[in-house]
Write a structure and sequence with these properties.
The complex is a heterodimer. Chain A is of the alpha/beta class. Helix content of chain A is 31%, strand content 22%. In chain A, strands 6-7-8-3-9-10 form a 6-stranded mixed sheet, with helices on both faces. In chain A, helix 2 runs parallel beside helix 4 and helix 6 packs across helix 7. In chain B, helix 5 packs across helix 6. Chain B is globular, with a radius of gyration of 23 Å. Classes of the chains: A alpha/beta, B mainly alpha.
């Protein structure tokens, strides 16, 4: 179903763990113009003095357009901090973050976040109205709103649920609405913060398949955070393993398995073993 | 209706029915109350004359509707003022630390003062007349509305704030489309409490500060020892309070479909 997901990488056996790529000059804009996301030596410290907590210490990361990057790490390793900084909800203590060549200074509809908790949808709005929230906030025309809504409803397969309230949907469908409300905007980067963590194993598997399909059709660049090893390998073109205290990227694995992926295959299992050993 | 529904209705009517019968027997047969307590039958007769007149020469004949309309207008006038001011100030105090610093202390200081204590100043400022009643009703209903709106506005989910910012909502858009609906369940609780208080304060105000309306008729009837009129007025006020509350509850459940919506 998602076999056509375009992979920007050359399908050669890249070294699974790579060093940092030189990304930019000291003060100017990032040099690697082909990368959508450029994160340079990102640090985030909470508090000060002896009680200071280093949530992120020197994270450097580039993401190519249409790439699907998954970040795997234990709770408290700083992966959510990284996502919040990319989203513009939090600011780095030091280091720089560029998305689409522009420095991130605050939240923007160009960087859509899908939160872990589907309560992030507005419960007083129907599915269609939730999806239209950003368009209405941006003062788009009625015609554009109608067209975009119907297109995205079709993409996520929720056309017959457009008049329902979030409470009337299953957890998986609510997360599809959460995806739709950011896809309906001109979103460059999709930031997914453990969006399926609250789902049961079966709907989770189903949602992962749908997500791959939706993202490939929408042509988004994706950063997906999870603490589920299978999910990280199933979804990602590239998997980053993070370790905590202080939070940093410990290893990087290119996942060259063909899609759709079989989580019971030998190759998948080899990657699973590798990821688990890296998580330690 | 099924049998169980009839049984339920019977259970619900039992205590009121027994009370009325007991009242009729105690007063009518045993003369309880020393002649000052009217029987329920006498109250119904008085109410009939008060409402419809029936060509009676009673000084209350046919004046009921006028009193009801006058009092209702004052309640809704005062309640609307209280709601508008309470919701706007409540949203500002709940969402802005600076506004809260300015306004929270004065609200907290004035809130414990019973509104009936404002009657003298109400007379000084507004004189004997409807404006006094509207002022007292508005002041009384204001506090539950503003307190509940503040609470609702303060508890807007962080996830909803982030969602709104991420989707590009400017402050005014966020205020009208996120803060207000998110606070609505709490605001409606405040409105309901405020509306209940409005009727209490209206009667207090009309007893002392106005020369018309149900509260005035009720207090005036005392001077004529017309206890039957007083009971009829009490029942009328109770009914109006009940009906206005029911209307507000109906409005609430319409506005809060999303709040109670389940699998349907």
């Amino acid at each position: 179903m998602a076999s056509e997901l375009p992979s920007v990488h050359a399908p050669v056996a890249a070294a699974p763990v790579r060093g940092q790529r030189p990304a930019s000059s000291e003060n100017g804009p990032p040099l690697a113009a082909t990368d959508l996301v450029v994160i340079e030596n990102l640090c985030r410290t909470y508090g000060a003095g002896t009680t200071a907590v280093r949530a992120l210490a020197g994270v450097t990361l580039n993401i190519r357009p249409r790439e699907f990057v998954t970040i795997l790490g234990p709770s408290g390793c700083g992966k959510s901090t990284l996502l919040n900084i990319l989203a513009g909800f939090d600011a780095p203590t030091s280091g720089r973050v560029f998305v689409g060549g522009e420095r991130v200074t605050g939240p923007s509809p160009a960087r859509g976040v899908v939160f872990q908790d589907s309560a992030a949808l507005f419960p007083w709005l129907t599915v269609a109205r939730n999806i239209q929230f950003g368009l209405r906030a941006g003062g788009r025309s009625a015609e554009e709103i109608r067209e975009r809504t119907s297109k995205v409803l079709k993409l996520v397969g929720l056309r017959e649920f457009s008049d329902k309230f979030p409470k009337q949907l299953s957890g998986g469908m609510r997360q599809l609405v959460a995806i739709a409300r950011v896809l309906v905007m001109d979103v460059q980067l999709l930031l997914l913060d453990e969006p399926f963590a609250a789902l049961d194993a079966i709907s989770r598997q189903h949602m992962q398949e749908q997500l791959i399909d939706i993202c490939s059709k929408a042509g988004t660049t994706n950063l997906f955070i999870t603490h589920n090893v299978d999910e990280a390998i199933y979804l990602g073109d590239r998997l980053l393993v993070m370790s905590g205290r202080p939070g940093s990227i410990k290893a990087e694995i290119e996942i060259l398995l063909p899609r759709p992926r079989n989580i019971a295959s030998i190759d998948f299992n080899a990657l699973r073993g590798k990821a688990l050993s890296l998580l330690g | 209706m099924r049998t169980s529904d009839w049984m339920r209705l019977a259970r619900r009517l039992a205590v009121p029915a027994v009370t009325v019968v007991l009242w009729q027997v105690l007063v009518g047969v045993f003369g309880w109350g020393g002649g000052f307590v009217p029987t329920p039958i006498a109250v119904v007769e008085t109410a009939g004359v008060w409402i419809f007149g029936f060509g009676s020469s009673d000084r209350y004949a046919g004046t009921w509707l006028n009193a009801v309309i006058t009092s209702s207008q004052r309640v809704f006038g005062g309640f609307l003022v209280a709601s508008a001011v309470g919701i706007v100030l409540g949203m500002l105090v709940g969402r802005s630390k600076i506004v809260a610093d300015y306004l929270d202390p004065i609200i907290q200081l004035l809130r414990p003062v019973p509104v009936s204590a404002w009657v003298p100043f109400s007379l000084v400022f507004f004189g004997i007349g409807p404006a006094s009643a509207v002022f007292l009703v508005a002041l009384g209903a204001f506090f539950p509305v503003v307190m509940n709106t503040i609470s609702g506005a303060r508890h807007v989910s962080e996830l909803h704030l982030r969602s709104a910012r991420m989707l590009g909502a400017q402050p005014w858009f966020a205020a009208m489309r996120v803060f207000l609906p998110s606070s609505l369940p709490s605001i409606l609780v405040g409105l309901r409490l405020g509306l209940g208080l409005s009727w209490v304060l209206l009667i207090v105000a009309e007893m002392v500060a106005v020369k018309s309306g149900l509260g005035y008729e009720l207090w005036n009837a005392y001077y004529y020892a017309r206890m039957d009129v007083i009971v009829a007025a009490m029942v009328t006020i109770g009914m109006l309070g009940f009906l206005s509350d029911a209307a507000l509850v109906a409005l609430s459940s319409r506005l809060l479909v999303w709040h109670e919506a389940t699998d349907q």
